[in-house]
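Example record

The entry below shows one chain as it appears in the dataset: sequence first, then structure tokens.
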Amino acid sequence: MKLKIAPLLLLALILFIVTVFSTTIGTAHISFATAAKIMLAQIFSIEKNWSMREETIILGIRLPRVLLAALVGAALATAGCAMQGLLKNPMADPYIIGMSSGAALGAALSFTLHLPTSLLSFITATITIFAVYRISKVGGRVPVATLLLSGIAIGSFLAALTSLLIYMARSPHQIIFWLMGGLWTSDWPKVRIASLMISLGIILLYRYSWNLNVMLLGEEQAQYLGINTEDVKRGVLVSSSLITAAAVSVSGIIGFVGLIVPHIMRIVTGPDHRILFPTSTLAGAIFLVFTDTISRTILSPIELPVGIITASFGAPFFLYLLRKQGKKIHA
């Protein structure tokens, strides 16, 4: 595993560079060196040679948004990696079994009833995933095909309810903006809450790395090797749901991160989840910080929803996956 540490160190370095660089971009220009010193001064003792204005801009305005983007990207990529491993499908993502529809309904209800958006979208997303799991359970087991079909059915029903709320809302633009995905409302309280829940969920998923490796051989083979496959399914679904719901509750629905990042990392590092999980986590954080920076600068001073940028990257890649899968089937 010594050689496997190299991509992790490289990705960690890239994440730090992208994070610092992202905080330098804005109406007030701050140099890369100054931004790096301000951030490192929160951990190490560094002589202060920057202004209070620069420190306020970095720590109070830009850094919370960049860190929240990194957390959301890490959560979606890790959950996508877990779902692709569990379903043995490179085209799976964290939303494949109705999670996004549940979160969207919660957000729509929150804007309609004037309730906290993050809290309600998290609750409805979590309820959705448990409802899908319970409906999919057949004789104490959860067949993958049934899980997918149940997720599609419930997701479609919840999407219809969300559309109804949008149609009836007096100010539907708030719901629509949330559905597009964005990090406009980022602040330190959201960063702290999201970091706690996402970190916990990611750690729980890492514990299933070896189990998912064995389950790639088939559920029967995994059972012969002493793995309780139903416990693994339940644990992976709960942990994936936790981090996806936490991410969606603070950012809205940001698509394709959980689809393309794990697949690219699988090509680079191989299918071993012991290295695939952490590389996907870091790469997802890098990808969303990068795309969020584009979303707030490409048409400055107008900010685009980051979901538009991730879709512009993800849609062509998804078509590539479809063609690749089609060629394998007809080969």
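Notes for this example: The chain has 14 helices and no strands. The first helix runs from residue 5 to 24.
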